[in-house]
Amino acid sequence: MEKIVSLCKCRGFIFPGSEIYGGLSNSWDYGPLGVELKNNIKQWWWKKFVQTRSDMVGIDAALIMNPKVWEASGHLKEFSDPLVECKKCHHRFRADELTEKKCPDCKGELAEAKQFNLMFKTFIGPSDDGENVAYFRPETAQAMFVDFKNVLDSSRLKLPFGIAQIGKAFRNEITLGNFIFRTREFEQMEIEYFFAPPDNEHDWQRIFEEWRAQMHSWFKDLGLAPEHIHELEVAPEKLAHYSKRTIDFEYDFPFGKSELYGLAYRTDFDLKNHYSEPPYREEGIAAVYPHCIEPTWGVDRSVLAVLCEAYAEESERVVLKLPAPLAPYKAAVFPLLKNKPELVVRAREIFEGLQKEMMVAWDERGNIGKRYFAQDEIGTPYCITVDFETLQDNAVTVRDRDTMTQERIQIANLSEFLRDKLV
Ligand code: ATP
Is 405 exposed, middle or buried (0-12, 13-18, 19+ CB in 10 A)? Predict the structure, then answer.
């Protein structure tokens, strides 16, 4: 983990937030390469689950919603964790995460556990009295229920269909840590997949299974090895207040097996709480409250899992074996020597041409070997070198990150060559 955190900082993936002011408890900022990796994950997800499916649409809702949303959804009452405080050192812990009855830090006596609501409070407008209290959303999901009628009325969707959203969520977590694994501010990619009220258990289980398979297909897309993924069937007494069934998908992070994503059957719980009348009508059929299955993905935990899986130390190099579509830079372009203007000009032309189509890096420092290793460390799949032969044969040397093999490619075919490899 330390090596990944350090690489992320040195190479501009992820920095401690507000670092020059001493940081802010477990807040992290995505740097120039991190934002590319994170955006690539989000874009790929959108393409897989929204763009290429005719039963899915997207929304992008406000982060601060009417507080009545959280009353209706049950979050104001139920969205809490049991908090215990040590009477001696005053450190605080989540009671359900403790394995012994004493303080893990100083072995002091622990006070009685009390429920601590995880929602982030704020105030709307200039006065900060109780009447103006509002909350930053603790999940993106509620907007899919609250906007359900508007989505329906403005589209021609028929059940079953899904509403997707990518966006920030906020939780005043009691315990933080493990880098970007658990933070107070994070991003989610969520889908509420609505279907007609089931006649029997099989009806919803079938859709649940379809989404379960989709989750595994996504793990494959991210390059996560199947043996690093584990399913945890959440016990009935531990289910969230809205769920009839939940599977947590866990990943073998370096700090242990922990939740990466979730899949829940939320029934008609949310729509029933938000709408006094059944919100879905189809001609000739009585209006109904659709049920829904919710697959949910943490963006930051996706970034972390992808980095952990891709990180490899080989005899002479550190390499991030990222799936090519996720790599921050798809290729790097080098002139063999930086003091030969004819090479630099030709390389610059190639670089600027490719830049119009994809993210590409430029490097002219040091020798070629060092440049290769620098690109390996940030996961760039291909390095393109312009040498003296290029000036004669209009071809470049393309070196593959994973196999380290090199081949000559005509400049005219370069963009097609890369595009073929990157999808
Ligand atoms: P945990 O048990 O780890 O607290 P959760 O079960 O409360 O997570 P969900 O409410 O199911 O999490 O949230 C959906 C997804 O959002 C999680 O699977 C995870 O990927 C992500 N997520 C939840 N809380 C955080 C957090 N504090 N920091 C980063 N990602 C988070």
Answer: exposed
The helix-helix angle for 299-310 and 32-46 (nearest 10°) equals: 110
Q: Taking the alpha carbons of 76, 81, 85, 90 in that order, is the dihedral positive or negative?
A: negative
Residue 411 CB partners (closer than 8 Å, separation 6+)? 350, 390, 394, 395, 396
Residue partners of 415: CB distance under 8 A and separation at least 6: 353, 354, 357
Question: In angstroms, what is the span from residue 257 Cα to ligand 1's centroid?
Answer: 14
Calculate how far, in angstroms, residue 228's C-alpha sits from the geometric centre of ligand 1. Answer: 18
Question: Dihedrals φ, ψ of 118, to 5°?
Answer: -90, 0
Dig out the tokens for 255 from the structure. 């700090």
Taking only the tens place, the pLDDT of each residue in 194-217 is 999 999 999 999 999 999 999 999
pLDDT for position 356: 95
**In the structure, how many helices (H) and strands (E) does the chain have?**
13, 24
Structure tokens at 318: 């550190």
